[in-house]
Amino acid sequence: MNITLDIAAALSAVIWPAIALLILLAYRSQIPMFVESLAGRVKKLEFAGVSLELAIAKPVVSEWSGTPTALDLRHRATAVQVQDSTARTFLVQLADEGTGDYAEINLGTGSEWLTSRLFIMAVVFARMKGIECFVFVETSGDVRKRFVGWADPATVRWALAKRYSWLEQAYADAYAAITSERNVVVVSPTGRLGYPYAPGDPGAAIDLLQEFLQRVQQPGFPSPANAEEWVMIDTATNTHEHANWITADAIEQGLGRDLQAEVIRSSELRSKNSAEQVRLILSMPTRFVPVVGDDQRFEYLVRRDVLVEQVAKAATLDA
Fold first, then answer.
1. Which DSSP string do the residues of 175-231 spell out, in sequence order?
2. Within 13 Å, how many C-alpha atoms sit on residue 43's CB side?
3. Is 88 part of any domain?
4. CB–CB of 24/31 below 8 Å?
5. 136 near 150, Cβ under 8 Å?
6. How large is the C-alpha radius of gyration of the chain?
7. Gap between the Cα atoms of 109 and 252, Å rounded
8. In terms of domains, do 237 and 269 share one?
9. What are 133's strand-pairing partners?
10. What does the pLDDT read at residue 72?
């Protein structure tokens, strides 16, 4: 499959390590002091067995550290839990006002997620929930939530659109329908949809979702020529959806190098002191760093880019 190259991700992979290296070289003598200061203040806080919580994905200024020079290593990426690809799950999630940095996509054993549902989620949830990446997990043997990899929503969307061209067409038709017929407008610089009289109403995104699904579903039997492209979703009405089930192998093959699979084991973090933990995270090449168990079970996601900013800010204040 041809995969769309994510230029932004490629640049980030090159630029962030360089920035981290410059910071560490310029302030190598001060950084241990900053980290030790933080460690002394959060020893009683624990998460997944780690006594010092690491910077996880929401770039919010900490109120716990107490001093302007202390590094805040505690804010974790807020996850939007999405356990299946049913329309009802989407509707509930869209009606919820909460936002998150990443969404956990549980592929199970390969019969939980349809390509069509992942596609529309990559579009709508990035706009409505502020989702910056998808974390893919699977069930493998006795291990549930085994980490597969992560990717940003735009990469997922365009990879699916390139492989399944009808998804982008269905989305374009659905978008045109709700904006022309239902007075839906863009209400934020991030592309969030709403109504002129109710900008915060999630109904506009729900309308888009429903319009999209109508365009990828059909009652009756699909054409024998492309029957393998359709999945039965309702036996009572004999309704099929123009989609395929997604497995971990399909994600790995479809996204290729755009699927980020580098991880840190939580047992390795626990074996290190706070200064070593920071250095380990900063040595990773990506802005998100997954932390997994020894069995590869996904535990949480660290925002490395936030940690870099905190190190730089603390070093600047102390200089």
1. HHHHHHHS--EE-STT--EEBTTBTT-THHHHHHHHHHHHHHEEESPPPGGGGGGEE
2. 6
3. no
4. yes
5. yes
6. 22
7. 14
8. no
9. 102
10. 37
By CB neighbour count within 10 A (0-12 exposed, 13-18 middle, 19+ buried), where does 52 fall? Answer: buried
What is the domain count for the chain? 2
174 and 239 assigned to the same domain: yes
Domain assignment of residue 187, yes or no: yes
The answer on 282 and 221 residing in a single domain is: no
Domain housing 203: 165-243
Gap between the Cα atoms of 301 and 297, Å rounded: 12
Q: Would residue 313 be called left, alpha or beta, if left means φ above 0 and alpha means ψ between -120 and 50 degrees?
A: alpha
> Token match 């009802």: residue?
88
User: Which residues touch 124 (CB under 8 Å, ≥6 apart)?
Assistant: 90, 94, 205, 208, 209
- Is 187 buried (19+), middle (13-18) or exposed (0-12) by CB count in 10 A? middle
In angstroms, how far is the first alpha carbon of the chain from the final one?
A: 51
Q: Collapsing DSSP states into helix, strand and coil, what is residue 242?
A: strand
The answer to whether position 150 is within a domain reads no
Give the length of the chain.
319
Taking the chain (319 residues) in consecutive chunks of 10 residues, what is each chunk's mean pLDDT?
A: 39 51 53 42 29 38 33 43 62 68 87 90 84 91 93 95 95 93 86 84 84 88 83 84 93 95 93 84 89 93 82 66
Q: What pLDDT, on a 0 to 100 scale, did the predictor assign at position 71?
A: 39
Q: What is the helix (H) or strand (E) element at residue 290, kind and residue range? A: strand 288-292
Structure tokens at 197: 């009289």
> 25-37 in b/e burial notation, b at 16+ Cβ within 10 A?
eebeeebbebbeb
